[in-house]
Amino acid sequence: MLSLLHITNDNGLIQSLKQEGAPLWISGILMFISASSLVLGLQYTSVTNIFVIFCASPVITAIFSRILLKEAVTSVTLIASAVVILGVLTVVSGSLNTVNILGDGLALLSVMSLSFNQTYLRKHKDVKRVATIGVGGLLMALLLFWFVEPSQFSKETWLIMGAMSLFTAPLGRVLSQVATRYITATEVGMILMCEAVLAPYLAFLFLGEIPSSQSIIGGTLIFVAVFYFVTQSARNTQ
């Protein structure tokens, strides 16, 4: 990301980073906190627990938007968030583990950092999104490198990490952050919940895993909630 910023900016990388100022670094640090706490949380709690905690993202984002941007928390947001939570709980029903304070706490820190970052970028629309992703990735590389042993990674692990670091992760983050220039952070957080809908079908498409009835029912609830939220939000802005 930083290399791309250097190539596409006439002033060069260093001058571009200076021009962005404090908002760039604050957003990059928030991204680092969100990503690193999520990775650490996975060592202490289950993916299911983290998945459930992340479904609170739209609600947390709405609260931050109210505090930082003075945006009202509408009844549409509350209704859609409640249905999303119901959908996620349906998807993971029967798989929830007991509470792990450390792991679940790290997951909550992750989602709060992500939600605050989306709200913060909504306020600072001129900050280059590619630059924030680059700074966040650089901080992760510099600070977390000392806690891993790359020599123990398999070839498959390297290929997966390469695909994620070069394509899926930066592209998804850049698009979601760019979206905050055009729609509210709460809307971005709500739309990102479609991940829960798409994941089972992508797993079926690429891995041959058949979605459970809970995944289909819960995914349908989430899709309906997101569709309701987006259409009502669009109607209210007209």
Describe it for me?
The structure is a single chain. This protein is mostly helical and 238 residues long. It has one domain. Helices cover 78% and strands 0% of the residues. The protein is built from twelve helices and no strands. The chain has helices at residues 2-8, 12-20, 22-41, 47-54, 57-69, 75-91, 101-123, 129-144, 155-179, 185-192, 194-207, 213-237. The longest helix has 25 residues, at 155-179. It is globular and about 45 Å long. The protein starts with a helix and ends with a helix. The mean pLDDT is 80.
In short:
The protein contains 12 helices and no strands.
Strand-helix topology:
Elements lengths: L1 H7 L3 H9 L1 H20 L5 H8 L2 H13 L5 H17 L9 H23 L5 H16 L10 H25 L5 H8 L1 H14 L5 H25 L1
Helix pairs in contact: 1-2, 1-8, 3-7, 3-8, 4-7, 5-7, 5-10, 6-12, 7-10, 11-12
Summary tags:
238 residues
Name the beta content range. Answer: under 5%
Please trace the helix and strand order, writing H or E for each element: HHHHHHHHHHHH
Q: Calculate the mean pLDDT score and round it.
A: 80
Q: Count of DSSP helices?
A: 12
**Shape field:** globular
- Report how far the terminal alpha carbons are from each other: 36 Å
Question: Which residues sit in consecutive blocks of at least 5 with pLDDT less than 50?
Answer: none
